[in-house]
Amino acid sequence: MFGVKQLVESGFCSKSLPSKYVFSRNDDDGSVVGNQDELAKVIPTIDFSLLTSGNPDQRSKVVNNLGNACRDWGFFMVINHGVSQDLMDGVVKASEDFFDLKEEEKRQYTGKTLFDPIRWGTSFNVRVDKTLFWRDYLKVHVHPQFNAPTNPIGFSETLKEYCKICREVASELLKGISESLGLEKSYINRKMKIESGLSHQLLVINLYPPCPQPELAMGLPPHTDHGLLTLLMQNQLCGLQVLHNGKWVPVNPLPYSFLVNTGDHMEILTNGKYKSVVHQALVNSKATRISIGTAHGPSLDTIVSPVEELVNSEADHLDPPAYRGILYREYLELQQSNQLNGKSCLDHVRIL
């Protein structure tokens, strides 16, 4: 297997895009709206420090904003989260160093199965992808058992520190989301076994090299994420777009912020009150973009279904269950063994 990075460095595609990377876009998928400076002001922003250390009124306002962001966007930006700039820079640099390793050294991590502790690869699923995506990746299962490549030197230690802090941030966000739903503060964390030490955390590092014809290629196609929340940071190069009210919104995050989106299991858990957001990754012709995401979900052996407090009750006039329960492990296998295609995976558990 050869990655996109090696393809670019070989000079084979310096002027034109190989046909197998030409992505067919659907005009019905949505159009891009606005300019990035204006849109940056529109995207919901959550001040994490007020969620964790603010006074009751400040916290109440942030919880309300968090609920609105989950309901209306499925996406928000988190600032003042307490993760040091040095650590975030260190993770980006360590990620660059990993992808700079010789191809044969990375190839030892070529994954055979979904739950291999460490997987390096390209596109999404080369076995089923009709078009290859302009992306190399490293996927690492980092919790409840931590794994990491042995090289480059210091990579493992940096990732371990970063992933631990991301779990703490995600846990606090889930507390706020619980409250925004009218549930007890620790409800989601308890029900999804987040605080038991059994929760699942997957680290995904994406490398999008410069592309000779970026308008023809795709980094990742429109899709939603598995899990409850995904925390994303990047190397200050834009490329992420989220689908909002039928329009693609380019995301231009503040430096050292986290971009957070709700996943399919948040939609299942909340019985559709908070929906997972469709998003995509575009590429550019000028520089390499790196994004680093941590997907946070329940333990692999947890069955996720709509919570009782949010489903059918004649007295409260709530909605009937909209999704069937599914084992988290089973859902990951379903999503990762098929093509990425919008919300097609979630449709498998939707009750029509």
Explain this structure to me?
There is one protein chain. By secondary structure, the protein is an alpha+beta fold. The protein has one domain: B-lactam Antibiotic, Isopenicillin N Synthase, Chain (Jelly Rolls, Sandwich), CATH 2.60.120.330. Helices cover 29% and strands 20% of the residues. It has helices at residues 4-9, 36-42, 48-53, 56-72, 85-99, 103-107, 155-180, 187-191, 264-269, 328-336, and strands at residues 31-32, 45-47, 75-79, 118-122, 136-143, 200-208, 220-223, 229-234, 240-244, 247-250, 258-262, 279-281, 289-297, 303-304, 326-327. The relative contact order is 0.16.
Number of DSSP helices? 10
- Strand order in the sheet with the most strands: 2-3-11-8-13-6-5-4
> How many domains make up the coordinates?
1
CATH architecture label name: Sandwich
At the first level of CATH, the class is Mainly Beta
Largest sheet: 8 strands, mixed
Q: Round the Cα radius of gyration to an integer and report it.
A: 20 Å
- Mean pLDDT score: 91
Low-confidence stretches: none
- N-to-C series of helices and strands: HEHEHHEHHEEHHEEEEEEHEEEEH
Structural class: alpha+beta
Shape: globular
Give the fraction of residues assigned to helices.
25-40%
CA(first)-CA(last) distance: 41 Å
CATH fold-level label: Jelly Rolls
Strand content: 15-25%
| Number of distinct beta strands | 15
CATH homologous superfamily grouping = B-lactam Antibiotic, Isopenicillin N Synthase, Chain
